[in-house]
Write a structure and sequence with these properties.
The protein is an alpha+beta fold. About 65% of the residues lie in helices and about 15% in strands.
Protein backbone atom coordinates (compact mmCIF):
# COMPACT_ATOMS: atom_id res chain seq x y z
CA UNK A 1 0.00 0.00 0.00
CA UNK A 2 2.83 2.27 0.62
CA UNK A 3 4.01 1.57 -2.83
CA UNK A 4 0.74 2.49 -4.25
CA UNK A 5 0.68 5.76 -2.37
CA UNK A 6 4.13 6.57 -3.59
CA UNK A 7 3.09 5.89 -7.14
CA UNK A 8 0.06 8.06 -6.71
CA UNK A 9 2.15 10.86 -5.32
CA UNK A 10 4.55 10.49 -8.18
CA UNK A 11 1.65 10.84 -10.60
CA UNK A 12 0.26 13.80 -8.66
CA UNK A 13 3.60 15.59 -8.60
CA UNK A 14 3.54 16.72 -12.24
CA UNK A 15 -0.12 17.74 -11.85
CA UNK A 16 0.71 19.88 -8.80
CA UNK A 17 3.72 21.38 -10.56
CA UNK A 18 1.51 22.18 -13.53
CA UNK A 19 -1.06 23.77 -11.29
CA UNK A 20 1.63 25.82 -9.58
CA UNK A 21 2.93 27.00 -12.95
CA UNK A 22 -0.61 27.85 -14.04
CA UNK A 23 -1.13 29.65 -10.75
CA UNK A 24 2.06 31.69 -11.26
CA UNK A 25 1.04 32.44 -14.83
CA UNK A 26 -2.37 33.57 -13.62
CA UNK A 27 -0.73 35.71 -10.94
CA UNK A 28 1.49 37.30 -13.61
CA UNK A 29 -1.56 37.90 -15.78
CA UNK A 30 -3.40 39.46 -12.83
CA UNK A 31 -0.44 41.76 -12.16
CA UNK A 32 -0.40 42.76 -15.83
CA UNK A 33 -4.19 43.31 -15.85
CA UNK A 34 -3.90 45.28 -12.60
CA UNK A 35 -1.21 47.48 -14.18
CA UNK A 36 -3.34 47.95 -17.29
CA UNK A 37 -6.33 48.80 -15.08
CA UNK A 38 -4.26 51.40 -13.21
CA UNK A 39 -3.15 52.93 -16.50
CA UNK A 40 -6.75 52.90 -17.81
CA UNK A 41 -7.98 54.54 -14.59
CA UNK A 42 -5.32 57.25 -14.87
CA UNK A 43 -6.30 57.85 -18.51
CA UNK A 44 -9.98 57.93 -17.50
CA UNK A 45 -9.27 60.51 -14.78
CA UNK A 46 -7.26 62.60 -17.27
CA UNK A 47 -10.00 62.34 -19.94
CA UNK A 48 -12.69 63.18 -17.39
CA UNK A 49 -10.77 66.33 -16.43
CA UNK A 50 -10.36 67.18 -20.13
CA UNK A 51 -14.08 66.54 -20.70
CA UNK A 52 -14.98 68.86 -17.82
CA UNK A 53 -12.60 71.49 -19.17
CA UNK A 54 -14.19 71.27 -22.61
CA UNK A 55 -17.67 71.35 -21.06
CA UNK A 56 -16.73 74.50 -19.13
CA UNK A 57 -15.33 76.03 -22.32
CA UNK A 58 -18.57 75.26 -24.17
CA UNK A 59 -20.61 76.77 -21.30
CA UNK A 60 -18.46 79.93 -21.33
CA UNK A 61 -18.77 80.20 -25.10
CA UNK A 62 -22.54 79.77 -24.84
CA UNK A 63 -22.73 82.47 -22.16
CA UNK A 64 -20.53 84.78 -24.27
CA UNK A 65 -22.77 84.20 -27.27
CA UNK A 66 -25.91 84.86 -25.21
CA UNK A 67 -24.36 88.10 -23.93
CA UNK A 68 -23.37 89.06 -27.48
CA UNK A 69 -26.91 88.34 -28.73
CA UNK A 70 -28.42 90.42 -25.90
CA UNK A 71 -26.02 93.31 -26.62
CA UNK A 72 -26.87 93.17 -30.33
CA UNK A 73 -30.61 93.12 -29.58
CA UNK A 74 -30.23 96.09 -27.24
CA UNK A 75 -28.07 97.89 -29.78
CA UNK A 76 -30.58 97.23 -32.58
CA UNK A 77 -33.43 98.36 -30.35
CA UNK A 78 -31.56 101.57 -29.49
CA UNK A 79 -30.73 102.23 -33.14
CA UNK A 80 -34.37 101.70 -34.09
CA UNK A 81 -35.53 104.07 -31.33
CA UNK A 82 -32.92 106.64 -32.38
CA UNK A 83 -34.12 106.40 -36.00
CA UNK A 84 -37.76 106.78 -35.00
CA UNK A 85 -36.92 109.75 -32.76
CA UNK A 86 -34.93 111.42 -35.52
CA UNK A 87 -37.90 111.17 -37.90
CA UNK A 88 -40.38 112.31 -35.26
CA UNK A 89 -38.17 115.27 -34.30
CA UNK A 90 -38.27 116.38 -37.96
CA UNK A 91 -42.05 115.86 -38.14
CA UNK A 92 -42.97 117.83 -34.99
CA UNK A 93 -42.09 121.30 -36.39
CA UNK A 94 -44.43 120.58 -39.27
CA UNK A 95 -47.28 120.54 -36.75
CA UNK A 96 -46.44 124.16 -35.92
CA UNK A 97 -46.47 125.05 -39.62
CA UNK A 98 -49.82 123.34 -40.14
CA UNK A 99 -51.29 125.06 -37.08
CA UNK A 100 -50.13 128.48 -38.36
CA UNK A 101 -51.55 127.65 -41.78
CA UNK A 102 -54.92 126.77 -40.24
CA UNK A 103 -54.98 130.12 -38.43
CA UNK A 104 -54.05 132.17 -41.51
CA UNK A 105 -56.06 130.43 -44.26
CA UNK A 106 -59.30 132.30 -44.96
CA UNK A 107 -60.91 129.79 -47.32
CA UNK A 108 -62.89 127.36 -45.10
CA UNK A 109 -62.50 124.40 -47.48
CA UNK A 110 -58.75 124.80 -47.68
CA UNK A 111 -58.58 125.31 -43.90
CA UNK A 112 -60.57 122.08 -43.41
CA UNK A 113 -58.14 120.21 -45.67
CA UNK A 114 -55.16 121.50 -43.69
CA UNK A 115 -56.92 120.55 -40.42
CA UNK A 116 -57.35 117.04 -41.79
CA UNK A 117 -53.62 116.83 -42.55
CA UNK A 118 -52.86 118.21 -39.07
CA UNK A 119 -55.03 115.49 -37.46
CA UNK A 120 -53.32 112.81 -39.56
CA UNK A 121 -49.88 113.97 -38.41
CA UNK A 122 -51.09 114.01 -34.79
CA UNK A 123 -52.47 110.46 -35.29
CA UNK A 124 -49.10 109.31 -36.65
CA UNK A 125 -47.30 110.77 -33.64
CA UNK A 126 -49.83 109.17 -31.28
CA UNK A 127 -49.44 105.80 -33.02
CA UNK A 128 -45.72 105.92 -32.23
CA UNK A 129 -46.45 106.73 -28.58
CA UNK A 130 -45.53 110.41 -28.73
CA UNK A 131 -47.15 112.44 -25.95
CA UNK A 132 -47.55 116.18 -25.55
CA UNK A 133 -45.66 117.59 -22.56
CA UNK A 134 -48.14 119.38 -20.29
CA UNK A 135 -47.07 122.94 -19.59
CA UNK A 136 -49.68 125.70 -19.23
CA UNK A 137 -50.45 126.43 -15.57
CA UNK A 138 -47.78 124.03 -14.28
CA UNK A 139 -44.50 124.66 -12.46
CA UNK A 140 -41.56 125.28 -14.76
CA UNK A 141 -39.34 122.19 -15.13
CA UNK A 142 -36.08 122.80 -17.03
CA UNK A 143 -36.02 119.10 -17.99
CA UNK A 144 -39.29 119.51 -19.89
CA UNK A 145 -39.63 123.22 -20.66
CA UNK A 146 -37.53 125.89 -22.31
CA UNK A 147 -38.29 129.35 -20.89
CA UNK A 148 -37.73 132.11 -23.44
CA UNK A 149 -39.52 134.91 -21.60
CA UNK A 150 -40.44 135.93 -18.06
CA UNK A 151 -43.42 137.86 -16.80
CA UNK A 152 -43.57 139.71 -13.48
CA UNK A 153 -46.25 138.51 -11.10
CA UNK A 154 -47.52 139.88 -7.79
CA UNK A 155 -49.05 136.55 -6.72
CA UNK A 156 -46.36 134.53 -4.88
CA UNK A 157 -48.23 131.27 -5.62
CA UNK A 158 -47.66 131.82 -9.36
CA UNK A 159 -43.88 132.23 -9.19
CA UNK A 160 -42.20 129.80 -11.63
CA UNK A 161 -45.59 128.95 -13.17
CA UNK A 162 -45.90 128.66 -16.94
CA UNK A 163 -48.26 131.39 -18.15
CA UNK A 164 -47.96 130.95 -21.91
CA UNK A 165 -46.88 128.17 -24.31
CA UNK A 166 -45.30 129.28 -27.59
CA UNK A 167 -44.48 125.80 -28.93
CA UNK A 168 -45.79 122.55 -27.49
CA UNK A 169 -43.26 120.05 -26.26
CA UNK A 170 -43.34 116.33 -27.05
CA UNK A 171 -41.82 113.20 -25.56
CA UNK A 172 -41.57 109.55 -26.46
CA UNK A 173 -41.50 107.58 -23.23
CA UNK A 174 -38.80 109.23 -21.13
CA UNK A 175 -37.09 110.75 -24.16
CA UNK A 176 -37.74 114.43 -24.88
CA UNK A 177 -38.28 115.03 -28.60
CA UNK A 178 -38.79 118.76 -28.15
CA UNK A 179 -38.99 120.91 -25.03
CA UNK A 180 -42.04 123.11 -24.56
CA UNK A 181 -41.14 126.72 -25.35
CA UNK A 182 -42.81 128.80 -22.65
CA UNK A 183 -43.11 132.09 -20.75
CA UNK A 184 -42.72 131.82 -16.99
CA UNK A 185 -44.10 134.05 -14.24
CA UNK A 186 -41.38 135.52 -12.06
Amino acid sequence: MNDEKTRERTRELPVVEMQQEEFKAMQNQMVAVSQQLSIAQAIAVKEKARSEELSNLVNRMQADFDNYRKRMNENNKKLKEDGICAVLEKLIPELDVLKQAIQTITDPKVAEGVKMIYRQVVDILTAFGVEEIPALGLQFDPNLHNAVMQTKTTDPSKVNMIVEVYNKGYKLGDRILRHSVVRVAN
